[in-house]
Design a protein that fits this description.
The protein is mainly alpha-helical.
Length: 85
């Protein structure tokens, strides 16, 4: 799908935060905005990814992962450790 450009203005502190957040989470600022907007779209259409989360094993895995991310108990790996040289 082709992409179009949109310009937005944010406070400098938010810009620095989103850049740091993207870097720490190995993603891009554009991907963060895209996922957020897609989430809003799904909610407005009455489809908040219920199909995926209706699978009990998937839901439990998501909840466990979110808990570990929030409480800091996640063991992080470098890209080289995961994918090798």
């Amino acid at each position: 799908m082709s992409k179009a450009r949109i310009n937005i203005s944010l406070d400098p502190d938010l810009i620095e935060f989103i850049k740091l957040f993207a870097d720490e989470n190995r993603t891009t600022v554009a991907d963060i905005f895209t996922q957020y907007i897609l989430s809003l779209k799904r909610r407005s259409l009455g489809d908040p990814t219920e199909m995926i989360l209706s699978n009990p094993a998937f839901r439990q895995a998501m909840e466990d992962t979110q808990k570990r991310l929030r409480d800091g108990s996640t063991d992080w790996s470098t890209m080289d450790e995961v994918f090798g040289d």
